[in-house]
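Hi F.,

I've been meaning to write this up properly since the lab meeting, where we talked about keeping a consistent format for the predictions we share between groups. The idea is simple: the sequence comes first, exactly as it goes in, then the structure tokens exactly as they come out, then a line or two of notes. No screenshots and no reformatting. I'm using this chain as the first example so we have something concrete to point to.
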Amino acid sequence: MKIICVGRNYAAHAEELNNPVPDKPLLFLKPDTAQLLDNNPLYYPGFTKELHYEVEILLKICKNGKFIKPKFAPDYYKEVSTGIDFTARDVQRECKKKGHPWEIAKAWNHSAAIGNFIPKEEAFNKNGHIEFSLNKNNDQVQKGNSGNMLTGFNELISYISQYFMLLRGDVIFTGTPKGVGPVERGDSLEAFIDKKSLLSCQIK
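Output, unedited:
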């Protein structure tokens, strides 16, 4: 499996980091070794002093496809979850300053926390959107609504499939809303869709 991530898919998040808002999806990849599953703890990596959380809605691909048209995209995922894209922000800042790729800031071991998946029908509200949030030490630090994404789920799947063949089991991280921030050893994170807890993670 592979993990495909979408950067700056919420305008307010791009603005809070003083990044330009992209005119098309900004993609990057994480290897399967980035997975952090089963609510396992994350051990604070030694190469960063500024580890940030970024909560996101995840889509799990259920069948293979490429060059997918947006109208057919709903057929390619049946389950959704929450995830945390852990980012070594200081490392990323240096990479960006030098014009280097972000992988060492984004794709390191266990940098992609993946929650429990639920049927997508259980996640969408009456307006056809997904509301999600992240608590740090029981205080809400991020809250998002998929209706505020710059590029929606169907268009994302279509766009990604023009470049990377999607395979069953692949996971798409669809972008984070504003409110990203640091974590320290001893912190506890919990991610929700609506009021359903799908992911918890301790920082050690």
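Notes:
The mean pLDDT is 95.
The domain at 3-202 is CATH 3.90.850.10 (Fumarylacetoacetate hydrolase; domain 2).

If this format works for you, I'll send the rest the same way.

G.
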